[in-house]
Amino acid sequence: MANTYKNRINSTITNSTVSHGLSWATTGASIGSVFGGIGAGIGAGLGLIGGLIFGGITGNNQARQEIRDLATEAQNDRMEATDIRNQNIQDAQRFISRTRDKFDTTYGAGMYDQYDELFQTIFNLPAGTQTVSDLLESLSTDSISGSITTSADGSLIGSSISDTLSLSDINAGYLDYMRQQIHTADTILGMRFRYNTERENQMIDSYLDSVEQYNLQLAQQFDSAFLQRRMEQASEAMAMGETAVAQANSGFRQTGSGTNLTAIQQFQNDMAEVAYSSMVSYQLRGYQLSMERSNTELVNEVYSIRTENAMTTQEALEGSIEGYNEAMDEAWKYQGAIEEGEEEIEDYNTDLDEMYEALGDKSDHRQAMDVEPEEAL
Asked: How many Å is the maximal CA-CA distance in the chain?
C-alpha cells in the first residue's frame, strides 16, 4: 500500500514547483522585456528554472514541516489515548475487585469466582478460554505510549455480552451445592440461616421437654387418682359389708324392701365408679386436646421458619445470578472501551510509521509516558 505521506510530500513539491516556476517565469519575462523580445524569453527561462528549484525546495520543506507537525499532534493524541486506556484498565480492575468483595461478603467466600467457573461450564467455553473478568484482571497498564503490553481483544475471550446466566441453566445438584454454600457462609445471610436453624432446634427441644414434663405431671395425677380410688373402693367395700351385717341383724327377711340398705349402698358405690371413670375420661380428652394444640403450634412455627429460609435462599440465588449478570454487562463495557483504545493507539502507530517513513526518520516514535501510570488495582 502506498505511503500516504510520501504522496503528500511529492504532491506538495509538484504543486509548489509548478506554481513557483510559472510565477517566476512570468516575473522573469516581465523583467527581461525591457531588453526586448529576446530578453523577455531569456528572463522567462531563467525565472522558470529558478522558480522550479525554489518551488521544489520550498514545497519539500513545507510538506515535511506539516508532517512533523502532524506527527507531534499524533504523538500527543496517542499519549492521551494511552492515558485513557490505562485509566479504563484501572477502573475495570477496581470494579471487578469491588464486585468480587461484595459478592463474597454477601454470599460467601469464593462465590464470585465460582460463578465465573460456572459461566465457563454452562456456555461450554474451550479449555484455556478466559471470561471477561479473567481478561480484565490480566491486563497491565502501559508506561510507553504506542506500546500495548496486554490486549483486550474480544476474540481472545469466551462468550459475549448477550450471554447471561439463569437459574434454569444450573442443574439441581449444583443448585443444592450453592444453597449449602450460602447457608454455611460466614456472612449475614449465613448467620441468619444458622440462627433460624438453631431457633428451630430449640423450639423442638422445648416442645419435647414440655411434653415430657406434661406427661410426668399427668402420670402423677393419674397415679394419685388411682390410689385415691383404690382407697375409696376399699371404703365402699367395708361400707357394703357393714350394711349387709346391719341388714342381717335387723331381724327382717332379705326380701322386698328388706334389701333397701344394701341396694342404696351399691348405688352409691356405682355412682362413685361412674364419677371416677368420667374424671379419667375428661383428663384423657384434655391430654389429647393439649397434645394436638401443641403439635399444631410446633408444626406452624417450624413451617414458618423453613418457609422463611427457603424464600431467603431463593432470593439469594436469584439476587446472586442477577448481580453477576449485571457485573458482566458492566465488565463488557470496560472491555469494549479498552479495546477501542487499543484500536485507536494502533491507528496512531500506523500513521506515525508512515509519517516517519516519509520523513526518512528511522527512529522509534514510541514515547515514555511523562507520568508513570498508577498501579492497577
From this structure: 198
pLDDT at 13: 61
Joined together, the cell numbers standing for residue 71 give: 506527527
Question: If pLDDT is split at 50, 70 and 90, which confidence band does 201 have?
Answer: confident
CA 116 to chain centre: 10
Question: Could you read off the pLDDT of 320-349 as tens digits, one per residue?
Answer: 889 888 998 899 999 999 999 999 999 999
Cβ–Cβ under 8 Å, residues 31 and 43: yes
- Tell me the H-state helices in the chain: 4-32, 37-107, 111-122, 132-138, 172-184, 188-249, 260-359
Residue that the C-alpha cell 432470593 belongs to: 315
Angle 119-343-129 from CA coordinates, rounded to 5°: 25
Q: Which three cell numbers stand for residue 274?
A: 361412674
User: What letter does residue 144 receive in the DSSP assignment?
Assistant: E
pLDDT at 345: 95
* Residue recorded with cell 414440655: 210
For 367, which DSSP code?
E
157 SS3 class: strand
For the CA atoms of 309, 314, 315, 317, the dihedral, rounded to the nearest 10 degrees, stands at 120
Cell of 339: 479495546
Q: Within 13 Å and on the Cβ side, how many CA atoms surround 129?
A: 17
CB 339 within 8 A of CB 152: yes
The rounded distance, in Å, linking the Cα atoms of 318 and 321 is 5
Residues 6 or more apart from 180 whose CB is under 8 A from it?
A: none
